[in-house]
């Protein structure tokens, strides 16, 4: 009989254990990278059979696997079943909650960890600050920052970068900037956090300057950095700069990023050019929900209503589940095309996807019925709402009342708005305009006085045109431009041609109690007309003229620009605060429904 020493048996068992342990760890890392859930579940069962789940590193890998496959509750189950909880195990579970948008659980486990006596490190602090940022909870985020300072991690590049990002997302841009300036070393997260913060607060020039400085310092920017800066270009309609950033993103091989893709679609759409938006959408191999939504709202704003409905069907067929933003986009398309039945269909479809309508969805339905002159149905929707009636809902009804001259219902809606407490300047202006449009100037003046008494100023109507690296901005009756004389001369010459073609000014859109001649003069020099005249004398080629406007275009200007496009033979694209109008050969893409 062969005798095998006990020592050799033990060494063989240990060798097999180490081989199995290494194989299990390698396989876990592999299925985590590939996000292969079925194989991962099989492997988890095998780990339990082998008894490896008690090993802290294996638990860490399992928690990370479930986190990456978007199953944070399974991560929690693995964590709770782990007997020995190391700092790595705590880091994994807190990160799992933060990465999967469960910030309250992330912070709860962070507190448990501190109470348990485990010291946070440079992996755990960023997850806690991320959770604070998701909640936009400045006080909690600041507490986490203070703890990082006390434990000596305050100026660690990863912790400090996450703190910068947290302060920026909480709207505390000065705190973010102070932290950013004090950092001895910065990485792409700290730069991106600052750029995002400035962009969110409308500090567009500062965001662009920081991006330029980051490139000058040869920082390897990521897709999140590009996304923030491209959105700045979209919000400020800087098409030229946006195109340069598009080229740079291609050069740096970010063209497959769905985050950059959605930002580019939004940028081109807001700048009045939808063809490149379609191209980007089609060429991006993997489309996330944000990209589908960006394309949907672009179609809605540019009056490509049928295309928006086709996209919705494509999205459903691809297995992508719509969210509340998706339905807002489709309802917006219905509203601006007068499609009442379609609007009702998509609103009811939300129940199928178990999405509860928000006040914005109800406001969209009120807008659909209001624009279609179904004001009684619009009011019924408001009265039957199961949630609180907000300013945007009553504002949608006010818009419908103004369009169809129902001042009695407008006054009722306004009373309801004022019961809500302080309201925006736009709401006061809506009521004033509704009265003025039917000649009730005393009530209109009273509404404007209420606006003045609140200390809120009405937003000045502006239109602007981009020329190279310059943006030329105009207000109504503006004569401050260097080429003001040429602009007014061009406008007068063009108006003579328009009158010959059949244009008659509609002075009912002058909402002031003045004489007929004065009304005619007031409407002739609205900001969008001055911007178009400037573009005509500046751009001699046949390129489309793009004019951006911060307020809604008035009815007479809408008619006038149709005549302008016919008389000068140019395509004129006007973006107001609601949608795009493409004027060509005397017609508008909105079919006079806006």
Automatic annotation (TrEMBL):
Task: Tell me where the PPR repeats sit in this chain.
Answer: 86-120, 156-190, 288-322
Output the Gene Ontology terms for molecular function: RNA binding; zinc ion binding
A Gene Ontology BP annotation from the UniProt entry: RNA modification
- PROSITE patterns from the xrefs? PPR (PS51375)
- The keyword Ribonucleoprotein is assigned to this record: no
Q: Keyword Repeat, does the record have it?
A: yes
Pinpoint the DYW domain residues. 502-594
Q: Which domain of life is it from?
A: Eukaryota
Name the keywords, alphabetized.
Repeat
Any Pfam family matching the protein: DYW_deaminase
- Per the similarity annotation, which family is this? Belongs to the PPR family. PCMP-H subfamily.
Q: What is this protein called?
A: DYW domain-containing protein
Q: Which species does the entry assign this protein to?
A: Lactuca virosa
């Amino acid at each position: 009989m062969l005798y095998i020493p006990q020592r050799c048996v033990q060494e063989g068992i240990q060798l097999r254990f180490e081989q199995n342990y290494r194989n299990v760890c390698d396989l876990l890392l592999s299925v985590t990278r590939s996000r292969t859930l079925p194989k991962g579940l099989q492997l988890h069962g095998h780990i339990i059979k082998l008894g490896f789940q008690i090993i802290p590193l294996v638990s860490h890998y399992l928690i990370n696997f479930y986190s990456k496959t978007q199953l944070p509750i399974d991560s929690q189950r693995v964590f709770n079943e782990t007997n020995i909880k190391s700092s790595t195990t705590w880091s994994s579970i807190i990160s799992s909650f933060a990465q999967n948008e469960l910030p309250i659980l992330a912070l709860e486990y962070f507190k448990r960890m501190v109470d348990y006596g485990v010291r946070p490190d440079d992996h755990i602090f960023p997850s806690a600050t991320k959770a604070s940022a998701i909640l936009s909870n400045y006080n909690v985020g600041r507490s986490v920052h203070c703890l990082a300072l006390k434990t000596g991690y305050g100026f660690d590049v990863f912790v400090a970068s996450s703190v910068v990002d947290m302060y920026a997302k909480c709207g505390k841009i000065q705190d973010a900037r102070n932290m950013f300036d004090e950092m001895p070393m910065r990485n792409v997260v700290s730069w991106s956090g600052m750029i995002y913060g400035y962009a969110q607060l409308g500090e567009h020039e500062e965001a662009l300057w920081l991006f330029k400085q980051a490139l000058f310092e040869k920082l390897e920017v990521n897709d999140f950095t590009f996304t923030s800066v491209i959105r700045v270009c979209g919000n400020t309609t800087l098409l030229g700069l946006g195109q340069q950033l598009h080229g740079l993103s291609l050069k740096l091989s970010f063209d497959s990023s769905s985050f950059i893709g959605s930002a580019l679609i939004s940028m081109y759409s807001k700048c009045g050019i939808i063809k490149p938006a379609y191209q980007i959408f089609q060429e991006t191999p993997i489309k996330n929900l944000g990209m589908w939504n960006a394309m949907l709202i672009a179609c809605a704003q540019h009056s490509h209503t049928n295309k928006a409905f086709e996209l919705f069907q494509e999205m459903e067929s691809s297995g992508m589940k719509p969210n509340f933003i998706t339905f807002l986009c489709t309802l917006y398309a219905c509203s601006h095309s007068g499609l009442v039945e379609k609007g009702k269909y998509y609103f009811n479809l939300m129940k199928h996807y178990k999405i509860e309508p928000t006040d914005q969805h109800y406001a969209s339905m009120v807008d659909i019925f209001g624009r279609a002159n179904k004001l009684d149905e619009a009011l019924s929707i408001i009265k039957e709402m199961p949630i609180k009636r907000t300013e945007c809902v009553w504002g949608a009804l006010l818009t419908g009342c103004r369009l169809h001259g129902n001042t009695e219902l407008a006054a009722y809606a306004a009373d309801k708005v004022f019961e809500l407490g302080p309201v925006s300047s736009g709401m006061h202006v809506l009521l004033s305009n509704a009265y003025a449009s039917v000649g009730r100037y005393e009530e209109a003046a009273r509404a404007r006085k209420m606006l003045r008494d609140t200390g809120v100023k009405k937003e000045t109507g502006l239109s602007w045109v981009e020329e190279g690296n310059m943006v030329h901005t105009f207000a109504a009756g503006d004569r401050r431009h260097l080429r003001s004389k040429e602009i007014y001369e061009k406008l007068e010459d063009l108006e003579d041609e328009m009158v010959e073609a059949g244009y008659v000014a509609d002075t009912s859109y002058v909402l002031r109690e003045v004489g007929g001649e004065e009304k005619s003069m007031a409407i002739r020099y609205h900001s969008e007309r001055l911007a178009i005249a400037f573009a005509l004398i500046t751009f001699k080629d046949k390129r489309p003229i793009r004019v951006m406007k911060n307020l809604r275009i008035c009815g007479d200007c809408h008619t006038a620009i149709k005549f302008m496009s016919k008389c000068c033979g140019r395509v004129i694209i006007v973006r107001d605060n609601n949608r795009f109008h493409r004027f060509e050969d005397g017609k508008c893409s909105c079919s006079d429904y806006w």
